[in-house]
Amino acid sequence: MKDIIRVKCLLSSDVETLLNQQIKKEAHSSAIYLSMASWCNRNGYDFSADYFFKQAEEERQHQLKIYKYVLDMGGTSISPDITNIKLEYNSFREVFEDALDQEISVTQSLKNIAARCQKEQDFITLEFLNWFFREQREEEFKARRALELFEVIGEEGTGRWQIDKHVGQIVYSSEA
Amino acid sequence: MQQTVSLPKINFTEVFSTKNGAIYQSDSEGCWYIDFAGKLARFDYRNLLKLKKAVYQIDIEDLLLNSDKSADLEIIFICACDHCYVLSLLQIIKLKDLLQGTFTMLELNHIIFDRLHRIIS
């Protein structure tokens, strides 16, 4: 008896489900960043708004990357519906706290997929995920550095204005 | 003069069967035939997965506990597929049983292929 399912699709149904969940997670991230950009813009933090617009675009690219990978491997990628996006934040600082939380949860869910791939010996998807792990290093670094600006500069006086100005200048330049 | 009609030869392999139905695989056509609820229906790869999803999504427990007066019928309609099933609750349980067995056997077949044929040959 032929192994028709394997001929049609490289991914196991479990990995495919996890990747589709990740697609949703990236789309959700992108929507959250967009909402953060809106909040920053409304409250006069222009540079931070730009920073979050850029982040939203990046998350969207991540989503598409997984989306196409699933299709290329013969699977079915599902376009997610995104709801429950936070519109208001209590403070400028809270925006960046949420941003870091978001990145940490993305990293965690990628680790979860990789663990599943390892268990199934799906080295192809594992290798595909490597790019994302590299990317997460940068994303978490940037989010953490941004939050650290609140400690380094301080929010008093023109502090928040200074922080806003410096957010866009954070770069991750590790060669490792 | 008598005409003879030669039908194309299709080989079926039984994947899984219960006393309520059976699922066969046709290697030459790359599809499956489901013998259930009084009909034999052809399912290709995409449609079989869609059927699996549709059947697994039915909340059997909810239907069992439901005390509404409505009939316990479920219509399983699959997009872009020629077949549709109108099943009673008992039939749904039986079909789910059949599909679960089938997918276990297909998974087993996949493991055998991976571990034996694909490594040795």
Descriptive tags:
heterodimer, A: 176 residues, mainly alpha, 6 helices, 0% strand, B: 121 residues, alpha+beta, 4-stranded antiparallel beta sheet, two-stranded antiparallel ribbon, globular, Ferritin_prok (chain A), iron storage (chain A), oxidoreductase (chain A), Ferritin_DPS_dom (chain A), iron (chain A)
Could you give a short description of this structure?
The complex is a heterodimer of chains A (176) and B (121). Chain A is mostly helical and 176 residues long. Chain A contains six helices and no strands.
Protein model, in words:
Chain A: GO terms for molecular function: ferric iron binding; ferrous iron binding; identical protein binding; oxidoreductase activity. Chain A: One of its GO terms (biological process) is iron ion transport. Chain A: Belongs to the ferritin family. Prokaryotic subfamily. The complex is a heterodimer of chains A (176) and B (121). With 176 residues, chain A is an all-alpha fold. Chain A has one domain (9-79, 86-167): Ferritin, core subunit, four-helix bundle (Ferritin). In chain A, 74% of the residues lie in helices and 0% in strands. Chain A has six helices and no strands. Chain A has helices at residues 4-8, 13-42, 46-72, 92-120, 123-153, 159-167. Chain A starts with a helix and ends in a 9-residue tail after the last helix. With 121 residues, chain B is of the alpha+beta class. Chain B has one domain. Helices cover 42% and strands 28% of the residues of chain B. Chain B is built from three helices and six strands, in the order E-E-E-E-H-H-E-E-H. Chain B has helices at residues 45-57, 60-65, 89-120, and strands at residues 12-18, 21-26, 31-36, 39-43, 73-77, 84-88. In chain B, the strands form two sheets. Chain B has a four-stranded antiparallel sheet with strand order 1-2-3-4. A two-stranded antiparallel sheet of chain B has the order 5-6. Chain B is globular. The termini of chain B are far apart. In chain B, 17% of the residues are buried. The mean pLDDT of chain B is 88. At the A-B interface, helix 1 of A face helix 1 and helix 3 of B.
